[in-house]
Amino acid sequence: MISSKSDFGTRLLLTALIASWSFTLAAESAPQQKSNGTAVVPASHRRARPASDPWWKHAVIYEIYPRSFQDSNGDGVGDLNGITSRLDYLQTLGVDAIWITPCYPSPQIDFGYDISNYEAIDPQYGTMADFDRLLAEARKRNIRIVMDFVVNHTSDKHPWFVASESSKTNPRRDWYVWRDGKVPGAPPAGQPPNNWESYFGHSAWQYDPRTSQYYYHKFYIQQPDLNWENPKVKAAMYGVARFWLNKGVAGFRLDAVNTLYEDPGLTDEGVVNGPDGKPLINAYGDVKLDDSRTSFQPKVHDVLKDLRRITDSYAGQRVLIGETYISSIEGLRVMYGKHNDELELPMDMQIGTINKMDVGTFRRRIDEAETQLDGAQPLLVFDNHDNPRWDRYGQGVLGNGVYNKDIGRVIAAVLFATRGTAMMYYGDEIGMKTTPPLRQEDVKDPIGKIGWPNEKGRDGERTPMQWNATANAGFTKSTSPWLPVPPSYRLTNVQAEVDDHASMLNWYRQLIELRRTNTALHSGDNVMVNTTDNNVLSWIRVAPDKSAVLVVCNFTDQPQKVAFDLTAQGYKKQPASTLMKTPGSSDPASLDAVDLPAFGVYIGQLQR
Ligand code: GLC
């Protein structure tokens, strides 16, 4: 995962370090606890979600990259009907909502993040009727749909931009950010307005010979930034939000929301120097800039408040999630709004971007999210379509991937057993690995072409979902899926894992089920314990009724024995029961000796 939004180039460092299932099968294979040593949650610990909490507060939100989830028409590209056909699977997994990355009409330069019509469905993903059916079928299963709302930019093929670029006097000219060059004329003789750079490499300014001006693009050249200073742009985009809310979607994931505004004074950004005092160079060969004039400008908050007023005006607890790569808890806090009137769930990437099994940093960041957000709800994210999957942790720790699955169980425990709302990425639940392309000519994501070999792009984390062991993992009937299915599908697939009680899939299901049904894990406070231990991360979840659960995660490749004294908190030395544990962990008779294998996890109900 990238360490900051301004540095897609660091992905490469991490990358370097580091299979059809039918409805019947899904229905028949509802989570069964116990058989792998995991105790069933006692009835006394089960309770319904409190009516006062909004649904998203305890939700598991599942990100779907539609191109890669399920192809229903055999063209090698996933589609909406494919998603609909897998809703039973998602329901059995226990997800409350799906976030679908952009499925609107698009030239697909950035695979949907370059939108040419905000109020329609791209034909390769289906029709609006397909979308409506997906929404209705999801609702029947209590699954909500969160749309990706790309607010910062459109496609250069969007009619707004086509009009805007046509002449300086076109009424849409001011819908985008057009400026004169610092030195007039086409580059290289002419010079762009300032030193700002695109996240995707090189200058953020593109010269247009028709009008001899430059337009600004924080991402690809084909993704011109909208001019949010223009009230007409705001009105049009708020209309888009209403269009989807009227259809009944549960809310939005706001894409690249921090970059909506730029410094109107066009001041150059500062150059970031390395420890040797020399400018840092990113994967594209550009000097690294500090992002100070093109990100987090104060007016972003006005837009967030407007959007929040809009979502709040609809019944059904619609939610605003933000793509917020922020490097401090104070910065994250600000995104909720001073009066909790902006984002409900800014993504907390601070935990997800630790990228190594470092107990101290995990502890500090989880605790910060618990204690320094003024009671607001954290949204934890480890994986998404922009960053290597969680197998990056295994590569980072030992360099050999031997413990990848065990580490995956630890990461899942952190994601689901801490207090935050949990966001997961398709395929994580079966242990899909990041599989980057081996040759530049195979790369689909343009940043991988621009940045090769330092930046191999994001194809590795976007490979097709592995449903079963048939050809192309049951993802498509086509012989040419849009991205190749990694060879790992033969063993790592839903069908193989569903009946294997020790599988990653069942680990995920059990964690999600436990989080839903156990009072303390559902809504208890999160209190770190044994805080000087550098090998084992432990915390308790304490419900208002004082029922409590202990979670213990071994972050090392060595067995660990840990002792807990929670008598001061009012809990006995003997745990009431084991709720979950990884294979090889024992049921401790006493908290004086909790034994964990390498990367083992123990979750137990405490006794008062
Ligand atoms: C967000 C998306 C990413 C996209 C970029 C530009 O970061 O997650 O996939 O390339 O915005 O829209």
What does this 3D model show about the protein?
Mean pLDDT is 91; it is low at 1-49. The strands form 4 sheets. This protein has an 8-stranded parallel β-barrel. A 5-stranded antiparallel β-sheet has the order 12-13-14-18-16. Strand 13 (536-542) and strand 14 form a beta hairpin. It has 608 residues and is an alpha/beta fold. It is globular, with a radius of gyration of 24 Å. The chain has helices at 11-17, 23-28, 80-85, 87-93, 128-140, 159-166, 231-247, 300-312, 329-334, 349-352, 359-371, 391-398, 404-417, 446-451, 494-498, 504-517, 519-523; strands spanning 60-64, 97-100, 144-150, 178-179, 205-208, 213-216, 251-255, 319-322, 345-348, 379-381, 421-425, 525-529, 536-542, 548-554, 560-562, 577-581, 594-596, 601-605. The structure holds alpha-D-glucopyranose.
How are the SSEs ordered, and which strands pair?
Elements: H1 11-17, H2 23-28, E1 60-64, H3 80-85, H4 87-93, E2 97-100, H5 128-140, E3 144-150, H6 159-166, E4 178-179, E5 205-208, E6 213-216, H7 231-247, E7 251-255, H8 300-312, E8 319-322, H9 329-334, E9 345-348, H10 349-352, H11 359-371, E10 379-381, H12 391-398, H13 404-417, E11 421-425, H14 446-451, H15 494-498, H16 504-517, H17 519-523, E12 525-529, E13 536-542, E14 548-554, E15 560-562, E16 577-581, E17 594-596, E18 601-605
Helix pairs in contact: 7-8, 12-13, 13-16
The chain binds alpha-D-glucopyranose (GLC).
